[in-house]
Amino acid sequence: MKDDSRKTTLDPSTRSIIDKIVQENNLNKGAGITILQQVQASLGYVSPPMIRRISKLTGITASALYSIATFYAQFRLEPIGKHLVQVCHGTACHLAGAEKITETITMETGAAEGHTSPDGKFTVEKVACLGCCSLGPVMTINETTHIRLTPEAARKLAKSKKKGCKCEKSSHADQQPGVTPDE
Ligand code: FES
Fold it and tell me: How is the cofactor bound (predicted)?
C-alpha cells in the first residue's frame, strides 16, 4: 500500500480509485461517510489529500469530511503500520496500569498514541475492553493477545517486533489455546 499520508498530492492510481468510488456514488453530497468508508476499504486510510479530492468532486467541504473522519473511530488518517498495537484502556485494564503500558509502547516504538511510527513499523492505539478483564493489563499486537503485562514485558515485546523476531509466543495463547499467533 502506498503511503500518501505525508504527500500533498495524490499519485494517479490513488486518484483514479477515489474518482471511481465517487462516481459510483453519483457524486452524491449526502454520501460523505459512505465514500470515506469505501476509500478507506480500498486504500487502507483517508489522508488529507484524499479528503481534498473527494471534496473537489462531490462539493462536500473538506472541513465537513475531515470532521467525519476525525469523529468516527473507524477512520484512519494515516496508513497502518506493519504491527498494529492496541492497548486496552477499559476500566479494569486502566486500573491495572494500562496508562504505563501505552506510555512504554509509544516510547519504545516511536509511534504517538493514535498514530503510526515514522518508520511505518508500528501503529499504537488505545482501545476499549478486549474481553479478558481479569487478565489485565491487556494488549494485542496484530492478532496476538498479551496479558498481565508489565511495562518491562511490553518493552520487550516491542523490541522483539522491531528486530523482526519470530520466536515470541503469545502469553494469551499460552493460557487460552485457540488464539492464533500473528506470525
Ligand atoms: S478492561 Fe481490558 S480487557 Fe476488559
Answer: Binds 1 [2Fe-2S] cluster.
Mean pLDDT, rounded, for 15-32: 90
**Rounded average pLDDT over 132-137:** 96
Measured distance CA(126)–CA(104) in Å, rounded:
13
Ligand 1 binding pocket mutation candidate from 125, 130, 149, 175 (most atoms within 8 A of CB): 130
Residue 93 in marked binding region: yes
| Range in 10-14, 24-28, 50-54, 111-115 with the lowest mean pLDDT | 24-28
**How far apart (Å, rounded) are the C-alpha atoms in residues 181 and 183?**
6
Residue type, 136: G
Ligand 1 interacting residues, C-beta cut-off 6 A: 88, 90-93, 129-133, 136, 138
Residue nearest to atom 1 of ligand 1 (CA): 90
pTM: 0.71
Angle 62-71/32-43 helices, nearest 10 degrees? Answer: 70
